[in-house]
Amino acid sequence: MSINLEVPTKFKLLVDQAHQVALGVFRPISRRYDLAEHEYPKELDMLAALVDGMNDSGEQGTGARGVRRSNDTEADTDGVRNGGNLSTVLSVMEACWGDVALVLAMPRQGLGNAAIASVADDEQLARFDRVWASMAITEPGAGSDSAAIRTTAVRDGDDYILNGEKIFVTAGARSDAVVVWATLDPSKGRAAIKSFVVEKGTPGFTVERLEHKLGIRASDTATLRFADCRVPAANLLGSPGIEAEQGFAGVMQTFDNTRPLVAAMALGVAKAAIDETRSVLAGAGVTVDYDRPASRQHAAAAALLAMEADWEAAYLTTLEAAWMADNGRPNSLQASMAKAKAGRMATEVTLRCVELAGDYGESSLLEKWARDAKILDIFEGTQQIQQLIVARRLLGKSSAELK
Ligand SMILES: Cc1cc2nc3c(=O)[nH]c(=O)nc-3n(C[C@H](O)[C@H](O)[C@H](O)COP(=O)(O)OP(=O)(O)OC[C@H]3O[C@@H](n4cnc5c(N)ncnc54)[C@H](O)[C@@H]3O)c2cc1C
User: Fold this and answer.
1) 59 falls in which pLDDT band (50, 70, 90)?
2) How far apart are the C-alpha atoms of 29 and 39, rounded to whole Å?
3) pLDDT tens, residue by residue, 41-50
4) Looking at ligand 1, which atom is closest to the CA of residue 380?
């Protein structure tokens, strides 16, 4: 038995629009920008302007800004609220059914934008309103263990001076600004890590090089360097003090909002592969019968049913994590569960679809989707790291107790 949740009526239009964009804008240019790695998909400019317009008109969850948690008490009075996190998850999923790499390349919809929406104060939110922001945490010596970062920020009058190197920054070359994680004092561990918005053109900030990748090739992945880079203190997101674990909890809070978004991307690309495979199988005379046990159907039909069930589990977990965010409930556990489940499901499902469709894979987008899906199980915390977080939460262990 499965539970089918209907998309809330107020989000139907948004989801339909995202589907039209996926079908009419992304799919036709998917292969082109997969082949032409590092060429900017100029078709995205008009689309980004459209999303800006929707945001300006107060449309909920049309982009990265949708993850901002509101302080109002609607949730307390209504009991249930379907807000910006849920609608962002639903529209991102639909858009990624078209092309996940192009969604990651969308101007002003970077992970840095989601970070700003999550933790910036109102003044900063207004100031960085039209800025396209990427997110720079990873360093050559610090990936999964983000507390080990070595980029430093030293206070100097009204500024901070940043020094360090960041790698694997999605949209790092094309974005207007980067949200950079740096430590105020490497000896103070997690508590001293703060995030700073550093705008392009700031002296001392350079883009060093771009990666050549297996998947999401329409999205640029850059190495950035900060050499005595002076950043206004007003660009620090969150509190400037070094308060025990609390400070780190602030920057980590971004992940509670962005992990469900990455899970949504995984759901989108996996759905694309399942839909395509269903139609390839139908063309070969294999149809799925939803009223008969899988064990009494064609092996390929049974495989499709198993993949759909796996997808559904990831979908419900993701909706729960986003819904909790909308309702002001702590969702770190659910956000990590959603990211782990959806990331693994998408890598397994997209590869299985290539297998099922046989040599058809090369002439369709199926093989591309299998390549694109892999990153969704890596960035914003790998599969293993999400499992570690889930285990810590369930067992009540700290990060020092369970590594
Ligand atoms: C295409 C792409 C885009 C990216 N975009 C961004 C971005 O925009 N911003 C950004 O800051 N970063 C970005 N990243 C970096 C990404 O978040 C890191 O690659 C990821 O966090 C893993 O870090 P790592 O590569 O250093 O691997 P490592 O941390 O070295 O991990 C290697 C392996 O060991 C496992 N492992 C590590 N620690 C543990 C543990 N304690 N227990 C069990 N297993 C463990 C990991 O799961 C992994 O399988 C991007 C990466 C790629 C490839």
Assistant:
1) low
2) 12
3) 999 999 999 8
4) 17
For residue 249, report the phi and psi dihedrals to the nearest 5 degrees: -55, -35
Residue corresponding to tokens 């790698």 = 167
Q: For residue 305, how far is its CA from the centre of ligand 1 (angstroms)?
A: 32
Structural domains for the chain = 9-127 (1.10.540.10), 133-237 (2.40.110.10), 246-395 (1.20.140.10)
> Which residue from 168, 224, 262 has its CB within 8 A of the most atoms of ligand 1, so it is best to mutate?
168
Residue 245's pLDDT band (cuts 50, 70, 90): low
| Cα 393 to Cα 332: distance, rounded to the nearest angstrom | 8
Question: Over the chain, what is the mean pLDDT?
Answer: 91
Question: What whole-number distance in Å separates Cα of residue 49 and Cα of residue 182?
Answer: 32
Q: How many CB atoms lie within 10 A of CB 83?
A: 24
Q: Which residues are identified as catalytic?
A: 380
CA distance 34 to 366: 13
152: exposed, middle or buried (Cβ count in 10 Å: 0-12, 13-18, 19+): middle
The contacts of residue 196 (CB under 8 Å, 6+ apart) are: 153, 160, 162, 179, 180, 182, 231, 235, 236, 237
Query: Residue 135's pLDDT band (boundaries 50, 70, 90)?
Result: very high
How remote is the CA of residue 170 from the centroid of ligand 1, in Å?
13
- Predicted confidence (pLDDT) per residue in 289-343, tens digit: 999 999 999 999 999 999 999 999 999 999 999 999 999 899 999 999 999 999 9
Spell out which residues line ligand 1, taking CB within 6 angstroms.
111, 134-138, 143-144, 168-170, 213, 216, 221, 375, 378-379, 382, 384-385, 388, 403
